[in-house]
Amino acid sequence: MAEGRHRQARHRQARPKVIGPGIVKVAIPGAAVALLATGSAVAFPDEAPQQDVSAASSPLQLKREAPTSRDALRPPLDLSPTQAPQQQKKTAPVAKHLKKQAPIPKPSSVKTRAAESAKTVLPPKITGSKFTTTDVNVWSAPVTGSLLTVLEKGSKVSVTGKVQGAFAEIVRDGVSRWVKAQYLAATKPVDKPVEEGTPSQAACKSGSSVEDGLTADAIRVHRAICHLFPSVTSYGGLRSGDSGSEHSSGRALDIMVSGQTGQEIADYLKANRKALGVSELLWEQHIWTVQRSSEGWRAMEDRGGATANHYDHVHVSVYGNSGTA
Fold first, then answer.
1. Is there a contact between 110 and 159 (Cβ–Cβ < 8 Å)?
2. Separation CA 230–CA 72 (nearest Å)
3. Which CATH class is domain 128-185?
4. How many CB atoms are located within 10 Å of the residue 141 CB?
């Protein structure tokens, strides 16, 4: 009877304590009771055997305690002295055309003499001489050249016979220059004498209708030209609608003429400018004014036609009433 009670008592002592699933009660000597999370209910005896906490508890801890060096995973490098110079033995590429380029030839003595002779400009060859029929502009080149000087009427010039467009080549101080060919003549021009030294102021035989609305100086010009050049029969006078022009105020006259006769009329008016009260002349794309009379005839811009450029008439502007004739 006593033996049976003793066995029951030992059985109760060995009976484990059961805790619900997910929680395990672990007894660790020298420490507080710990609860471990598990997936199921675990039974532990009241007195669990002592564990050595210094021992590894998982493979992960073993892996961390034995770290592997990264250098051990890299392949070994062969840096022996025999291969290091071979890796540095590289030359820069050379272009193929440079390998085949022929040397630049040096100029020969013949070519050098030819180049030196080309630099020497020979003076133009003179073939004769002519006279200027009016004050003439002298240009450095035809059409596009610059105005250099003005030759007075009757000046003798050396010519080469070379003509380019409306320009003829002359030679001054051994240098090529250009003037309008139409202003050169083989003989020296002679000014026509004015009758009794004073321009005529008699009424024109063709009538005086052109004089309507003209100022006194414009009438003086009309009567002087009408008397000296009876072949001229057409004139242009007052144009009241021509705003900004001397024609609208009666201070201008157009003498409808061309060629050599036109040049003679222009020269006559310039020579008698004081007696007739002339202030400005336009003729064959050139202009002459009293204010700049020392410059002679000056070139004008191209206005696009014979009439606009004054090739078919001489335009005369006057002061109004300052003439002495």
1. no
2. 126
3. mainly beta
4. 13
Length of the chain, in residues: 325
Question: Which amino acid, 258?
Answer: S
Nearest to 299 by CA among 132, 150, 133: 150
177 in Cβ contact with 170 (< 8 Å): yes
Nearest to 277 by CA among 231, 221, 236, 315: 221
Is the Cα dihedral 8, 12, 16, 21 positive or negative?
positive
**pLDDT tens sequence across 95-148:** 555 555 666 766 655 556 655 555 566 889 999 999 998 888 899 999 888 989
Name the E strands within 37-114: 43-44
Beta-strand pair 286-289/235-236: unpaired
Please state, in angstroms and rounded to a whole number, the distance separating the CA atoms of residues 184 and 46: 148
- Residue ranges covered by each domain of the chain: 128-185, 196-318
